[in-house]
Amino acid sequence: SCGMCLKANPRFECGWCVQNKKCSLKQECISGNGGWMHASSENSRCSHPRITKLFPETGPRQGGTRVTILGENLGLQFRDIQMGVRVGKIPCMPVEEEYVSAERIVCLLNDATNYRVQEAHVEVCVKDCINDYRALSPRPFTFVTPYFNRIQPSQGPISGGTRITVEGSYLNAGSYVSVRFAQRPCFFKRKVKHCLLSCASFVGMNEGYAPNTVSNYLIDSGQKHYTFRLQFLRHKVTTKLSLTFCIYSGGTLLTVSGTNLATIQEPKIRAKYGQVESFHNCTVYNNSVMVCLAPSVADSELGFSESGTDPDEIGFYLDNVNALVVVNKTFSYYPDPVFEPLSPSGVLELKPTSPLILK
């Protein structure tokens, strides 16, 4: 394209031959001086700009959306397009630090609260807004009013870390999302689709219900409020194990009892011995019982005793419940079992119904 030609390294001495519509050396352009443009020329600009991609394609009427425009011939210098970007009749102010000559414009959309049109095409004018230097987006930008109507789950540990799902409409709009509950941040994770997003919850307050908890949901400059009840729960975990020992390689089934365990979304058991720290996921059965497989410490650089070795640490990762990362429990690791060969040849012949004895 013309724009890519004129922004090429000057040592190539490339210019745009207007009549032939191609990148060429000056002597190869049959139009002569008047039909050959070079980047060093004072008034060089490429005609027929084109928008190939626009994102996001929706945003709140309150503005603040960072609209990214990709295309061809979108000016050679920032000043070429500085005052020439609109969404319908609403100005969109280009950000100089994010401008890529001829290829990309990022602009901040102004407030469109009083703009009655729901859809409008993005317009880019290069210096002058005449047909040869004007581009329209192939798809329109849509002004929407995001809202949400449900939050799940409605309870979580007071230490935070719960993955919260917000449901509603147009939640994929705009370029920036911020969620807060009772003035505490919910760290945005991802937009799942237009009606879902997820975030990791704040550190809570006191144990119990927080009635009329207000959630603030901010998309760019558009803010919405939602009132609901959120319960903060404290967790107490004590281990009751059928065995207080395990082999180095782990895998022993451990039953863990406690309170409010059903609110934990990603429970894990951990063990640390020397430089090795390993984990195993746990399965929560109800509010008071979960089952975990003992983690392995077989790769530790430290030695093991035949009479049992205590790990340096054993504990749990329960979302953000930091008090249980290390728990004071008596637990020992023993050598992995080793089987003797069935016979010198490795083959053992048995009569039917004879017992098989493993040693």
UniProtKB/TrEMBL annotation:
SMART domains, per database record: IPT
Domain IPT/TIG: 48-144, 145-229, 235-334
Compartments in which it is found: Membrane
A cellular component term, taken from the record's GO annotations: plasma membrane
Keywords in alphabetical order: Glycoprotein, Membrane
One Pfam family recorded for the sequence: PSI
UniProt xrefs under InterPro entries: Ig-like_fold, Ig_E-set, IPT_dom, Plexin, Plexin_repeat
Top-level taxon of the source organism: Eukaryota
Chief site of localization: membrane
Signal peptide: none
Name of the protein in question: IPT/TIG domain-containing protein
